[in-house]
Amino acid sequence: MARKLRRLLAGSTVNERYGNRLEVITDGPHAVSALVILKSSGFEHLSNITCVDWIDEHRMDVTYNLWSYTHRLHAVVKAQAHRDALEVPTTGEIWPQAQVYEREIHEMFGVEFTGNPDLSPLFLHNWRDMPPLRKDFDTEEYSRRAYGVVDGVEEAGV
Amino acid sequence: MLKVSREEILDGKFERVLNFFRSRSLWMLYYCTGCGAVELPPTMTSRFDIERFGIGPMATPRQADILLVTGYVSVKTLKRIVRSYEQMPEPKWVVGFGSCPVNGGIYWKSYATINQLDRYIPVDLSLSGCMPRPQAVIDGFVNLMEMIRKGEAVGYKKYRLNYEWYKQNQAEVLERTEPVLRPGIASVGKVQETKKKISVMEGVK
Amino acid sequence: MILSVVKVLGHAFFVMAVGLLFMGVGRRFSARFHRRYGPPVWQSYIDVIKCFSRKSISHHWIMDMGSVMGLAGLVAASMFLPVGRYLPFQSTGPIIVILYLMPIGYLGMAMGVSASGNPLASIGIGRALTLMLGYEVPFATIVLCMIAAFNSTSLVSLGQAQQAGFLSWNIITMPFGFVAGIIALQAMLAEKPFDTMIAPSEIASGPMVELSGKFLGLAFLQHSVGIFVETGLIVTLFLGGGPGVGFFILKQFLVYMLSLAINAIFARYRVEQATKFLWFTAGGLAFIQLVINMYLRSGTI
To answer: Does residue B30 fall inside a structural domain?
Structure first.
């Protein structure tokens, strides 16, 4: 399967990891075509979409987890985007459930998904700061400023 | 700060007679806010029976005396807790269950949960522990019954007299208009850089 | 004149006090079923006093009127029930009057609760009135059985007809009627398996969802008077009515404990299942009893 995919996906790297897992590394604009090829090769189930923030290498990975019932194989597609130009085309036309995952990633990481019809916030209530799951968001300082800090109490006998 | 503190508004003599009856039959609205609600069924059922003190569960805020805030309180939950508290008729009491309403508990660093419930609604009794065991819960409720009987549990009067202060605190959290972490302030910049380095190192590990 | 007013008021307070005592003892009894201790027996008095000492919120003047009407209907029904041959004023204890004063209580509560504007309350009241439609069928058939057997609708004469010892009680002579009566009593008291009206976690306690403070106190008192009247009816119809007030209350207590024992074991029926059960099973038993009574009375069918 890995050889077949290497032949089909000319511009990307295909690795084999342990067990029955494959890994495909592409970049943003080619992610959609890679996913279409994978879906037609037998990976019909999209498990979830998530995002990883590599702040040292100054990029973010939008990660798609796919599963194939026919071949019993698991594939991971990592679409790498540069941290200053976070744009990935949407996969809502391939799998309809991807629209909600992309909404969450847009809210929590700030990745712009072009073509997604609805990117309104899901969880955060009245949020004005930077997207909270990025590595340069200081959550302790936010909690200290917004909600206050309670001093510790001297326990008797401890 | 608070204009009127607790010591100034204790109940008068006539109220003490009614307080005897109120302390013997408390009905609680257990608003299962968070993970703490898992300790309430063992407390209410056969082994650690709390109905022998007259305390029973009631379904709606209109019928309940005690609002039981169990566990962590996120920003969305805070809005609903305030609304439920204001729907309850007086006299009413709030019990903070677990360490999270006291000082944030294990979620004190989180951007989504508040740290100190006492700034938004008046808390009469706090039970610490993560989660407190049923024996501790019963001990806390017996303490609350003593406080009510003596006329010291007057959180609802505090809320009424310090209404603007509580509303201001609530609006600060619920209707935010400016970002909290403002970038570009010089004195904070270095602190932010060092903190960024620490968080980056943690991320790499 | 003044003395009769005092007698009527005293009877009303006596009925409420005994009903609340039954509720308190009942809570302790069903706690023992669950292998735990329960609250003390005077807990219901403390609950009612606490309810009246809180501030209450009224949404409409119809809500005030409806709550009072609910209590008033049941207290009026309790005036006609002979408590061991004692009545607050001279009457023959007509059973038809009691049968139509009891729904006035329900309808008053329904009117008051619907005026509160909460949709959960309307669902709860719809279920309660459907259940009332369910239990009136076997209960009215039992009344027809009594008319067929004793030729009068007066509870006083029914009580007197059963005074000839234990074997003349209607529980022995009309067993099917007694079973139908016990099933109808479960529905009238809103105990499981017919307590879909209260249903705490489904519809947030049904009709009582918006009642606070004194309205909740009135609802509690209405429930306690209802316990007294309904168990009193079963005792007078089937268990002989008692030679004095003490024996009457003792027999009422036994009937209430039987109903609580059934409550502790069963789960809850849905409304359509409950009405079907009440109409066909309980109503069927009462109908068999009616046919037997009419046969015995006239010799032929």
So the answer is: yes
